[in-house]
Amino acid sequence: AQSVSQHNHHVILSEAASLELGCNYSYGGTVNLFWYVQYPGQHLQLLLKYFSGDPLVKGIKGFEAEFIKSKFSFNLRKPSVQWSDTAEYFCAVNANNAGNMLTFGGGTRLMVKP
Amino acid sequence: SQTIHQWPATLVQPVGSPLSLECTVEGTSNPNLYWYRQAAGRGLQLLFYSVGIGQISSEVPQNLSASRPQDRQFILSSKKLLLSDSGFYLCALTGVGGTEAFFGQGTRLTVV
Q: How big, in percent rounded to 5, are the helix, strand and coil portions of chain A?
């Protein structure tokens, strides 16, 4: 079955540290890839998305993600995190050969210490 | 622009009681509709997925069911709630071709 895996369930960083959150998926074929963020007490919002073109995608708030097709990965990165980045991050994938059903990873809870 | 109306925002129900959560969408036609459950520490779990009226895919075996009586209406139901059904339920839509998801405000369900 199609799946989306986020291997880091909890990450704790100090401010100014670099961030990389892993996301791997098991779909073949054409995929659309997303990262969503949920700040404490708030609703999910879109950070960035990849449909086609440049595999390095820039999102809001200084986040970026790189689509590596050969590795079935779409890792999220930020060079220098801030305390305000404390949130839960979700990777999501839909695939043309899976009816475009949107499947989320289990989420990564990031805590940034001031 | 697309909007999703989901109600109620919070709900406290006794074990064994029925459930009906409604989600309606505006500003789009023939959307793909989803019910997700977000439980503490367990991420976002896909429960049901619908590509059209009367077409429901169930992703997780459970005592919940879903129906789509109209193109822009998606209903999550249960005949008898369990304690384990407590959680935060989100309705979402994606457009034709797999666009980004838009979410409703969610329903916090507590089964007591």
A: 10, 50, 40
